[in-house]
Every structure is written in C-alpha cells, then in structure tokens.
Amino acid sequence: xxxTNSKNIIEEETETTMQQTILLNIPPRxxxxxxxxxxxEAALQSISLYYGAWISQKLIHDINEGEYLSQPVxxxxxxxxxxxxxxxxxxxxxxxxxxxxQS
Length: 103
Known about the structure:
Strand content: under 5%
Shape: extended
Number of strands: 0
Largest sheet: none
Oligomer: single chain
Helix content: 40-55%
Radius of gyration: 19 Å
C-alpha cells in the first residue's frame, strides 16, 4: 500500500472517530414540576451524579435565580446559566450554536 493511501485511510478513520456520539451511562431522573419545570436542573443533577457529586435541583434553581436554561437568555433576564455552572465548579465549553453546522 502506498504512503498516500495509508495517509487517506488514517484521515478517514480520524474523521469518523471525531464524529462519534458517546453515550454516558446516566440513569433517568425525575424533574420537579413547579416553576415551569426543572429540566435544566435535572440535567445538571444527572451530570454531577455521574461524576460523583449530588447537587439539589433546588440549589441549582436558586443559584440561577430561576429556571436553569442552557440556551441564551434575553438581555433583560436575570438568569445567568454560565455563572451558575461556574459557581457549581462545572468544567464546560460553551457551544457556539449560531455558527455550528446543523445536521
């Protein structure tokens, strides 16, 4: 096999690997129903439990000063989801949802 073919195969394998979805073994959780639901709080609780820390959905809700939403909030909204993640010591990369390709 030529070096060019080997290089192409390696590049294709790398691209395939980078596009894989990784599913974590996180059991489903129940979210609180009040205050428009606690879906964001339940998601953060599930992630923290996966890494060995229990965080109450109410605590997340209180730190965020309202329902935790992972999407941008309007300028006049007092909720700050990235501040909440920082205060809870989460490591995260903010997704550029506007400029990212959609599938």
